[in-house]
Amino acid sequence: MSAVTAAATAAGAEQHTRYLVFGASGYIGTNLVPFLLQQALTVRAAARNIEVLQARGWTGVELAQADALDAPSLEASLADVDVAFYLVHSMAAGRHFSKLDLAAAENFARAAAIAGVQRIVYLGGLVPDQASGEHIVSRRQTGEVLRAGTVPVTEVRAGIIIGPGSAAFEVMRDLALNLPIMVAPRWVRAKSPPIALSNLLTYLLGCAREPQAAGEIYDAAGAEQVTYQQMMTWMADIAGKRKPIIIPVPVLSPGLSSYWLGLTTAVPPDIAKALIGGLKHDFSANDQPLRELVPQRLLGVREAITAAFTAERSHHTLARWTEGAFDQRGFRHDVAFYAKKAGGSAQGDVSAAAIWEQVIRLGGSNRYYYMNGLWWLRELMDWFVGGAGLSRGRRDPDELRLGDVVDYWTVIGIEPRRHLTLHFGMKAPGAGILEFDLQPLPEGLTKINITAYWHPRGVWGLLYWYALVPAHLFIFRGWTRAIVRRAQAAGNHPVDTELEIPFC
């Protein structure tokens, strides 16, 4: 066989290879799917919530709903798959997430073997020998469980990933751009070889394509090894902000560090706590074998940060709000990716349709059904600083469409009788999103959830949020109950609400 013929045969085989991205709704999966599509590959994307995948707006992708903790759901997602990218990690699940990780990996390895999958490519993490943090140890153990199955596994171990939405990257961005002066844990002087998102995606696909990578473990690293302090300083510089003054102190334990992160950033507590266990270590990588297997130009750290900031500007609004949508943050690098959240819930003996009729009539002459005096006060304050606070009105009193403006809110997501997502239009140091979610329950009950997401801009954005905490403790409870009562009164249903008040 000639070289030309062999190349053509290999190209044909590649085009017929079916790739599964399992965990496609996560950070890496959300970026890997379009990367594979750019190579004209056949791709199936799977996640627990298929609605999140549908909101991505991908074309040419088969979508599947599957949960690695629910073994029977894996069968359809793995059918006729040649190579499966396993990108599941339960860091945000709270306590004992490592047990969930191992159970999920075991289920997936077993189901992949039954389905006849030829290879699993698993994205793990660099693990120092002295590591004890649950987050990074779990990554190593997950790889071990996958390799215990019969399907060959290629594990790619990466440290900090430089890209919008990467948890560690967003932690450092929040710190660098929120705090001009910070007393920081001593882990800011720990070293790591961060890798650009584009380089990591190239490595993942390269490993999937190379037969000799089966059964191997590779370290993936960028072109430089730097401290977290250096990365934060460069982030501020590239974003056009004053470089922060960072004062490392030895007194902040991992537990105290997680609380410190929760106070000074918008990173969710569970993620902050999990990350701290890894950030305190120096990371090193022997990436020469992977460089030889998949040759490419590795970006330096400053170059990778610049690329990450640039990539954010290309993201488009999704059908539903997803964490950190950059266009709704005003294309500002200093607005946090993660959000502070507050919310409330109520349920009653009334249909979702009846509650929806009340939700879509909010604003205009109807006002907001609860604490209208507080709403008026906030509107007046906004008007005094030149905002749109006193701009009231709507296109139609009884109907909402995507893009409608309701007073100072803009409709950025709508699913009739299920979800309504509004973007906050008043002047404030950050970006705000308000989401209404309706859930039909047994016996004719319906539950309504209202959640406010606040993406702070700098220290003033954090202070703004904390100033509103007293109001958040009661306003969402009363608001959800008021909506349910109005729906019940309109349908002559008895008023019977049960309340839940989540706050974080």
Overview of the molecule:
This protein is α/β, with parallel strands linked by helices. The protein has 16 helices and 20 strands. Among the domains are: about 10-160, NAD(P)-binding Rossmann-like Domain (Rossmann fold); about 340-500, Alpha-D-Glucose-1,6-Bisphosphate, Chain A, domain 4. Strands 3-2-1-4-5-6-11 form a seven-stranded parallel β-sheet, sandwiched between helices. A hairpin with a 3-residue loop joins strand 16 and strand 17 (about 420-425).
Features:
504 residues, alpha/beta, Rossmann fold, Alpha-D-Glucose-1,6-Bisphosphate, Chain A, domain 4, 7-stranded parallel beta sheet, 7-stranded antiparallel beta sheet, 16 helices, 20 strands, disordered N terminus
